[in-house]
Amino acid sequence: MRNLGAKDYADIALRDAINDGDVIGPRMVASGPALGITGGHCDENLLPPAFHFQGEGVADGVEGVQHRVREVIKYGADVIKICATGGVLSKGDDPNASQYTLEEMKAIVADAHRLGVEWPRMLTAPRRAIGFGAGVDSIEHATEWTMRRSPR
User: Fold this and answer.
1) Which residues contact 99 (CB under 8 A, 6 or more apart)?
2) Cα 78 from Cα 117, distance rounded (Å)
3) Quick one: pLDDT at residue 120?
4) Architecture of domain 2-149
5) pLDDT value at position 99?
6) Can you give the pLDDT at residue 127?
7) Which residues are CB-neighbours of 49 under 8 A, at least 6 positions away?
8) Mind giving me the DSSP string for 104-150?
9) Nearest-angstrom CA–CA distance, 92 and 45
């Protein structure tokens, strides 16, 4: 079973409890928090500005995404989940628009692979990631619009 994008590393804690025999359950592949940009699909953007709240997987810029990848791997991630485009359930972002730059996505994939995580996964399939070779290993939750218009 895969769980991609859990808050507070709850999926990793459950996976570990199953592996230790404390809980009965399936073999799990877990990501911990999904990575996304400030104000993007994986940021907690439905709260009013007064809260100044940010999703725990939010990272911007090449150095920021490298730090976040290293952090989620440190806490046990088997895969890296990337919110690469806007989403249908978040406010103010476009499900058809790429959020991370190509350089940021390449940095995420490079660090994940270098540190032994073989499956950086993307929430959606922006043409930028596929067409320009960011190198992700799997596409998840792609919309029909995105898949029809992405290079094959």
Assistant:
1) 36, 37, 40, 41, 83, 84, 85, 86, 93
2) 6
3) 59
4) Alpha-Beta Barrel (3.20)
5) 85
6) 53
7) none
8) HHHHHHHHHHHTT---EEESS--HHHHHTT---SEE-S--HHHHHHS
9) 8
Q: Where are the domains of the chain?
A: 2-149
Q: What one-letter code names the amino acid at 19?
A: N
Token couple for 67: 């730090």
Strand blocks (E) in 32-119: 80-82
Q: Is 80 helix (H, G, I), strand (E, B) or coil?
A: strand
Q: Report d(CA 30, CA 13) in Å as an integer.
A: 9
Phi-psi region of 22 (alpha: psi -120 to 50; beta: other; left: phi over 0): alpha
- Provide the token pair at 145: 């619009």
Dihedral angle sign, alpha carbons of residues 70, 12, 119, 92: negative
Query: What confidence score (pLDDT) does residue 143 get?
Result: 57
Q: What are the 10-residue block averages of pLDDT along the chain, 152 residues in total? A: 91 97 96 91 79 88 97 95 78 78 90 82 51 66 51 43
> And the tokens for 97?
């628009």
Name 35's bridge partners: 82
